[in-house]
Amino acid sequence: MLEKLRAPWKRLIAPIARLLVRMGVTADAVTIAGAVGTVVVGIAAGLTGWLLPGAIALTVLVVFDSLDGSVAALTTGGTRFGAFLDSTLDRIADWAVLAGVIIYFLREIVDHAAAGGTSPHLVAWIGVGCALFSVMTSFVTSYARARAESVGFEAKNGVATRSDRLAIILVSMALSGITGEPAWLMAFMAVLAVLGTITVWQRIATVRDQMNGAAAPLTPPAPPSSSSRSGAVRPRRASSGA
């Protein structure tokens, strides 16, 4: 859904991209710096429990995620290795953000037990389960697109693309950070798990339909009309050994 904002956002960050080019910063350097920053902040937010500062810092890193593409467009025009590097490091960044969420919930479980809680911390346990499930759907969503493209088809659709998933995570982190209630984060993780599942099935269905369409038999040519000249050359039959 948020993918529709990519074009106007690229126009907005174009001056920053031009500044980076003048400074001699390469697109690959921007890609690596963004991924490293996301991993560090995501894990640190989970370990410290500072969800609001973590959400703000991650938002800054995420919104500038397209800077590498803008820098590449102004320099090399984009390379296949750059696209490969960006996609690979995006998967690591996605894992780190959800890993931070899981660490936060585990921290809540430990703190609950240390405070003498006798009953399970259901909110935290449900949050862990939903976040783990969302890790799976996140990677399968990306894999479905990559696998489809490797065999000549396209699967970019879905109700929860990468931008949507990150928005859900960051908003939920901010809400739990402001209120001090992990229930917000847990609820959004449940939503993310459901939307991720729907997206996976949407991409599978899209590729299936594309493949079925590509495999449809061609309409046989119409027989020559009776008015055709008797001397016309007839189509040659295919050899049986073809």
Question: What topology emerges from the helices and strands here?
Answer:
Elements: H1 6-22, H2 27-48, H3 51-63, H4 67-74, H5 80-114, H6 122-150, H7 162-179, H8 182-214
Helix pairs in contact: 1-4, 2-3, 2-4, 2-5, 3-7, 5-6, 5-7, 6-8, 7-8
Overview of this protein structure:
Helices cover 72% and strands 0% of the residues. The protein has eight helices and no strands. The longest helix is centred in the middle third of the chain and has 35 residues, at 80-114. It has 242 residues and is mostly helical. The chain is globular and about 60 Å long. Helix 1 crosses helix 4 (67-74).
The helical percent reads: over 70%
Structural class: mainly alpha
Strand content: under 5%
Largest sheet: none
Number of helices: 8
Number of E strands: 0
Order of helices and strands: HHHHHHHH
Radius of gyration: 25 Å
Mean pLDDT over all positions: 87
Q: What's the multimeric state? A: single chain
N→C terminal distance: 47 Å
Low-confidence stretches: 226-241
> Any idea what the shape is?
globular
Keywords summarizing the entry:
242 residues, disordered C terminus
